[in-house]
Specification:
By secondary structure, the protein is an all-alpha fold. The chain has eleven helices and no strands. The chain is globular. Helix content is about 80%, strand content about 0%. The protein has two domains: about 170 residues, no CATH class; about 30 residues, no CATH class.
Length: about 240
């Protein structure tokens, strides 16, 4: 029952993030109108380096629109079962995140709405994504799949902040909360919550003490009778020597 609930919860999360990503991408299309300045940029004027900021905005939006759905796809069993496809998609998403999404995001974070507190939140999220992505790539190369999965969950968790944050802003605005406080809370709460959720999902069960009865039963199911006899005799010999 728990496994079924967990699978459907994961599917619901991936689907909701995919829809949220698509909606954000549609709302960001005006950023690519090269004849007029986007309203989001006009709110921040004057900017010291307007051309650089606008370029970073467009790169960030385009990279997010491509990399986030790819990262979501990497979490599905359909892609994970296809090693070659998983490797290709992973490399594409890794390049987009490390060399397009993060650098442009850092540029935008330096002039983020809400001041230094919000800037610190964006930079923390970017640092987590960078560290987790690099750690995940290294873990995959050394065939440590558990460490790789944990790192990629942190990447996905921080990338999901973009969707969750916007939902929180809408909800807090409907509740009549102060806009400045709502903007700060809508950033920091998802950033910290995603860290906690990923660590909770990746927690490892405590190793239980070996039970000889269970060991023999497992060997009986998985090996031939002759192998069981040989293994039991091998396990019993050291005990016999200790008893002398």
């Amino acid at each position: 029952m728990r496994a079924t609930i967990g699978r459907w919860t994961a599917r619901g999360f991936l689907l909701s993030m995919l829809l949220g990503s698509a909606l954000i991408s549609l709302m960001s299309l005006p950023y690519f109108d090269f004849e007029t300045l986007p309203p989001f940029m006009i709110e921040k004027l004057p900017l010291r380096f307007e051309a650089l900021w606008l370029l970073a905005l467009r790169i960030h939006v385009a990279a997010a629109a491509l990399s986030f759905p790819l990262c979501l796809a990497l979490m599905t069993r359909a892609v994970q079962r296809r090693v070659r496809a998983h490797r290709i998609i992973g490399r594409i998403s890794g390049v987009l995140v490390l060399f397009a999404l993060l650098p442009s995001g850092v540029v935008l974070a330096l002039s983020a709405k809400g001041g230094g507190v919000v800037t610190a939140g964006f930079l923390l999220s970017a640092a987590i994504v960078a560290f987790a992505m690099i750690s995940g790539v290294r873990a995959a190369r050394r065939r440590d799949l558990l460490a790789h999965a944990r790192a990629m969950r942190h990447v996905l968790g921080q990338m999901s902040v973009a969707v969750v944050s916007r939902l929180m802003i809408v909800a807090l605005d409907a509740l009549g909360m102060d806009p400045e406080f709502a903007y700060v809370a809508a950033l920091w709460v998802p950033v910290l919550a995603s860290i906690a959720v990923v660590e909770w999902l990746c927690r490892r069960p405590r190793p239980s003490s070996p039970n000889p009865v269970n060991l023999i039963e497992r060997m009986t199911r998985e090996t031939s009778p002759l192998a069981v006899v040989l293994r039991v005799r091998a396990l019993a010999q050291p005990v016999a020597r200790d008893g002398r």
